User: Fold these one by one.
Assistant:
Number 1:
Amino acid sequence: MATQQAVRKLTYVQAFNEVLAQEMERDPNVVVLGEDVAGGAGREEFKEAWGGPFKLTQGLYKKFGPGRILDTPIAENGFIGAAVGAAATGLRPVADLMFVGFVGVCGDQIFNNAAKMHYMFGGKVKLPLTIITATGAGVGSAAQHSESLYALFAHMPGLKCVAPSNPYNAKGLMAAAIRDDDPVIVFNHKLLMGGIGGGQHVPKESYITPIGKANIAREGTDVTLVGISYTTYQCLQAAQELEQQGYSAEVIDLLSISPMDDEAILNSVKKTRKIVIVDEDYPRCSVASDISALVAEQAFDVLDAPPRRVMAPHASVPYSPVLEDLFIPSKERIVEAALDVLQ
Amino acid sequence: MATATRASAISKEKLIWLYETMVLIRKFEEQARREQDSGRLRGTHSAIGQEAVPTGICAHLKDTDFVLGNHRSHHHCIAKGVDVNEMMAELLGKVTGTNRGKGGTMHIADITKGMLGANGVVGSNIPVATGVGLSAKVRKTDQVSVVFFGDGAAQQGSLHESLNLAAIWKLPVLFVCENNRYAESTPFEYSVAGGSVANRAAGYGVPGVTVDGQNVLDMYEVGGEAVRRARAGEGPTLIEAQTYRYFGHYGADNPLGYRTKEEQDHYMAKDCIKQMRKHLTEHKVATVADLDAIDKKCHDRIDAATKFAVDSPFPDLDELTTDVYIKYD
């Protein structure tokens, strides 16, 4: 009967919203705090004016009330720090850092406390904290609201980092993040939240996409393309084009940035002997650089060509649409890089 | 109300606990300085002179309440009941330490005693403590969260964000500023606009109380009211305890490079332990011999803690990469 199952098409935002509601139902210690996660706080007639800046928390205030959906003042250091303290003492908070660039305001709480408390306290405090944050360029938000910054977080021992690429794994990874006893950063790309890639079948029942495992989004034999979040979508587009040109590209959807599924990457490279890593983050000391080093150190002998990175430039995210388009790794650049290592 | 009158309302047992806790802290800190001088310990931030502040507050707390400290936090830990053996072992980097030797002097934590950690970043624990208060409120317990910070930290934005949050959510948090008059070498009067930390509470509609932090009975009274308010759901309190750091900021820092001997003598003459000895003997709560016996007991306790720490092993080398995560694969 499994084959008869009806398709239940959800957008990224709907899937994310569903998992938040399910986890809050499942565990009374799960709370959400952040700016405008309800919206219009304190005013009876405007309850839940926003439902989150990206609607991820829509409907939750009405369901769970002000005790568990907590609108905060604009004070990232204050409320992310509060989420750390709450996590250390029995809650399982989900804190919404509206845009990843705002880490500049609350880096102390994330890097000095959340990442380090378990270690520096000798393993005696656990910190089941989830931080969700919006990433990515493409909507004209310029330098401070469009970054990826994966590497900044992945650099820190003590933090886990996941980057969903579609509605299905957004739901599964978020469930995994909330249930995890370590602090997890969940990067939500703005274009994915905006609907790029379209809806997808998402089972109603709750499920886990394990942290630390990559997904082979498309099998292939000639070249490995590694995508992170939105760039996985681009890699899949590029793979279609490569197919038309007679090449079989394998697409690895990284999903988990820290821990990273080294094995999946190495296994794929051993098969294809060529790798192109597509990362929207800044290029210096990036996740793509890390993967490139991994392959160079552990699979050098099988490589037919040097590992190749397709990335943003070492520049801030520009505003003008012509420049922003150039900033984001494009399908064309991925295809070009792939053809380069293939030939 | 005069100190003497107030003290009559405190049980003899509690008065002795206040004295003994301060003496135990003093002896611990004196030994820590000796360890530092001998080179077994690579420097600490001495809390000598500031013993009365956490002692008076923690006298009202239970193991299930939480205390969060700062870089100068040995006195907070001892007042909250953390074992001095484990603390001394932690200072020496031993595996029997509170943090298995991984935290050291600036990060001592023992969640079983409600000590949620010293923290080496100035002002960093203030938001965390606010979240502990939020947790207590959401979980509907009567737990109280207390954060100790210095006059230096009071200039960080974290205090202001947290006072605001704790006030709008009416959280059971005590914000306790231990104003020892120096942020490292920078004097209070230079760095604190308006000349008061406690006054800042008014802007958030929170009670702000200034108290003599060298008088443990005053601390006890102010702490009692703030804890009562917190447990009753009446919200946070900001307490500015005026105290004095007898030694330099850290390690071998010589404070006479930035303050006078006369100033030091002025504050040391009001030493919290001396004051309490006088009070207890004058009011016949204890004799000099009783108090000397307590001093001796604390001295022996710290001797035993030092022996425990010295005799304890260092962590196994594979501990370098354990406890980074609960699970990571």
Number 2:
Amino acid sequence: MSLNVSLLLDSQLALGEVKPALDVIVADPRLRDRYTVYGLVGDVLRGNSTPDDGFSTRIFERMRREGVRIEKDFDPSKDG
Amino acid sequence: MADTVQDAELVRLAQAGDAKAFEALVVKYQRRIARHVARYVKAAGDVEDVVQETFIRAYRGLASFRGDSAFYSWLYRIATNTALTHLQREPGEVLLGDDAPEERADAFEPGVSDAEDPERTLFAKQIAEAVQRALAKLQPELAEALMLYEVDGKPYAEIAGMLGIPIGTVRTRIFRAREFIARRLEPVLEPQRPRRW
């Protein structure tokens, strides 16, 4: 199944495979971690090393804390 | 093209209420967006704030994403606007045209508050060294496929043509290379595992 993590990261899954693969990955902490670590490996190989100390997690925590929702008429390209 | 199609599918899932689909996009693009923002914004803490704001604005405006362009291009534009807005509000910041914004961006590492945090800097160095050690032990054909993809930026199909192998073999070689390295990184990364997605 980790193969699908690698394929999802590289956009190699067929359209119909994306949702089933995503559901399996998000439900499994080990696979979710692999998704981050595989991306980290690529960054390190390109010379962008980082400890990845919860950068994305802090984004999700803030979104939950602020109750961020999709807004029908919000245009993100306008000045914030 | 593959990125465009699959990202559009993840956006479609997110628009339909699957927040995890959006999280997968955040994890995928967070560092690229951070490096872009660092071209405009100087302080590492401010970069993180702008990146957070970028993804929040993207999520709020997800309904307006029609798939006319690649998701990353759309995100990139939002990040640019968000960074410029930040600069207007922070007169102490350095605007574009600063001496070496490219170098500043290259030096930026998400979550690393520059040299003032030696522990994080050391940890990043340990990760880089562990990846290099693993790479040195990797089967050459696996390392070749991974480097062509990650460093040279070659698409899977082109790698298949260059190496004279089926694209399915490219997929498995890149996966096996990543997994080999990931396993050897586990002891180094374990302390921060609970903080990752």
